[in-house]
Write a structure and sequence with these properties.
- The chain is an alpha/beta fold and 452 residues long.
- A 6-stranded mixed β-sheet has the order 7-6-5-3-4-8, sandwiched between helices. A 6-stranded mixed β-sheet has the order 9-14-13-12-10-11, with helices on both faces. The chain has a two-stranded antiparallel ribbon with strand order 1-2.
- Helix 2 crosses helix 3, helix 8 packs across helix 10 and helix 9 packs antiparallel against helix 10.
- The longest helix is centred in the C-terminal third of the chain and has 23 residues.
- The chain is globular.
- The chain starts with 9 loop residues before the first strand and ends in a 5-residue tail after the last helix.
Amino acid sequence: MIQYKSLFNTCKIPGNDIDTLDRHFKSEFEGDCPSHVVVLRNGHFYSFDILDGEGGVITAPEIQRQLEYIKEKSDSVPRVPSIGVMTSQDRLPWTQARQHLMKIDPKNKERLKCIESSIFLVAIEDTEPEMSELSRHALCGDVNSRFFDKSYQLISHKNGIFSLNADHSPYDGLTLLGAAYYTILQIKQMDGKWQGPMEIRQFPLAEELKFTTDEMIIKNIQQSYEQHQKETSNVDIVDMQPKFDKQLLKSKRLHPDAFIQSAIQLTYYKLHGKPGSTYETATTRQFYHGRTETVRTCTVENIEYCKAMLDKDTTSQVRLELLYKAVDKHTQIMSECKDNAGCDRHLFGLQMIAMETGVPMPDIYTDPSYTKSGGNGNFILSSSLNGYSALHGLVPPMCANGYGAYYSILQKDLRLVVTSWKSDADTSSMHFYKTCEQTIMEMLALASTAKL
């Protein structure tokens, strides 16, 4: 899958009219590529090479020595406003600020290039989040420890927990989760301990990237910080682990993902008394250049099921039959979307062609029903299955009155993250989560009665 080539050595570069993706990664068959990592601590950027000069990767103790040096050195000087804060602002102001930063000192351009071309960025923080707080820290944490245009940012917390923040442009979330899962497997295979040589060879110590700034840049950083604080304070995040029973569903021939999607539909119906247009990610990674397709899970079958569950006169047998129909329909359209037979990417492509060539925009794109169905980025519910491990990810909702629902399915529980906007009086992440947890229990009880 070609997306993995954008996981490392990649950065989004702001432009006046359009951003560009600056990719530097090359395989060993394609030639050399940058082999340095950038570390951010207390607003200070440092860079060091992870190759030993003979083509091998330096050892874990040697990497530890570099990180300890960086921490010691950055802690011995005052914390400074990081130029990375400016990557949180709107794209045009950041474009202008970046151009000004390079004009102040020609070496600033080299320093930016060092960050942008690095394998990835590591942020060393003093935060100690609990697991339930990790999602908020990863998405809305210390902006002074971020460079949001980087494709991969590894955040190291003081209590030994790690989180990730990534730009979504060059690849999809499952690509990052896949790489993280592989890393965890490697750590487990070594029982969490380095099994190689303990000798620390002498290599050049990490070099600090000292940016030259002026009053305009310092002011811009402060404005960016204030904007980031305002926007992130509006994000309502609940990260919990409700009980689940994956094995029960498998024994009843109910796909766990389809089951959860029906639970999300029913949860929204309970809270708002109507169906909500829903986006679920389908990956098209079986195609070399594949990205995603939209699974529109608010189907007629799911709506009929929701109505039956809220109708006290409907029997359990009828409810169960409608649940199976909803699950079967979801399984069908998910399969179609994975085969690149969905509708949303096709419609989006036609819309972009019309915009870029200046031809009249087809009426469907301005029809109110298209927007109501989720078109033009108006899905009320944005959801995604993050996989079948404890790893999970999240983004805020698409709409001001919407929700995000992101989940990982384990054997006996879920990792469920719900997002919403605090500015909307009709939505609440905690209310959605509690209702969804209750709904899942009701549906598991119903599923247990199925006789196959």
